[in-house]
TrEMBL record:
Domain of life assignment: Eukaryota
TM helices/strands, residue ranges: 58-77
Name the UniProt record assigns to this protein: DUF7729 domain-containing protein
Pfam family, any one: DUF7729
Biased composition range(s): Polar residues: 124-139
Domain called DUF7729: residue spans: 149-366
Amino acid sequence: MLTPPSSPLPASKQSFPLRASRSPSPLAGPSFIPEKQVISAHATSEEVKRNIGRRMRWAVLVVPLVLILIALSTRYITHLPVMDILSDPTMSWSQMEDNLSDWHLHKRHPAEADAQPTGLIANPGSSTTTDKPQSLPTVPSTPPDVPRPFPQAFDSDIGQNFSSGSCQNFFVNMTNTSPFRSCRPFSLLADTSAEFINAQTNLTLMNTLIWGTCNTSTPADECKVNMDWFAAQMKVECRQELSQRNDRVLSALTDIQAYDMMRKAACLVDPSTNSYCYMSAVINTNPSDLYFYSLPSGIFLPQTTKPTCSACTKSMMALYALSLSEQYPDMGAEVVDETKPLAGLQKTYGASTVLTQNQCGAAYAPTIAASSTGAASQVLPRSFVFVVSAILLYSSKIFGAFSLW
């Protein structure tokens, strides 16, 4: 019997020769495999330092060039050469100094009509009816004929800039009530009464109005109580506007809460002339003395302020210091609530004291622990802000490398 041949084995799945059986590739030799370099920590640190050093050297070279280009481009953009042809002749230093110092507050003086200046700062001692210079009137020795009706706050328009009907109704009712109108609040009149402001062009009338604010039919103590009540009610009826920092409402509250102090300020008399200090400030060609009446509103004295250093300056600063010390025994407390009484003066008094003492001497302004670190107001040119921003941005990118090191 024949034995059948054994079955053939199944084909192997590996139909190709093993990699080892291949001929060696010329690229597979050990000489063609790059060895991994081992870099020490010391070498890495040195390389980072060199990179930072190179960046710093480039920064020293590039930053000045960038600033020069910015300055030149800003000058060219904001002042095209063709504008030199159309511009006025170059002013002298004295003319520039006069122009810089000849400015007026927004609310304290009459609005300018076309090309004819009506404010006393622009045309001191002038009148709306005559071009003859006016002399400084003295305090009336007998009661003058006070205008009836007397100028009132918000006499032109209360406005519609209110968020709530309750606040608008409160302003309308307040300005039409006898307890308010009879007290003739100087602080509000000087800020919001067009008739009172325009009276500055007639010194006789202005002198009569000042007398009227100092001699009201309602006693001064009763007026203070009335104004305190109006201030408390305003905080309730206008709480939404106050929380939104509505300028008109906040300014009115500030003026009402400063009623008693500003009444005394308006009635100060210059002993050398027997005239109201406010009248002396109005007629003076130097507007600096008028600026002091804006301190309770939170407006800083301009750096160009040059007070006359008179008895009026000393009396007004003494009045402010006394009022602040009574209202805020701890003047070191920071002003965080602008609705508090005399908050505006608390903010501005410290800087005004420094300026007044530098100009007039330490005796002209009592020094108290002012809560504000602000100085006299100033506005930085837009080009300066842009250059500073560019420097800070570029520096942050350079020094950002140190945080990675």
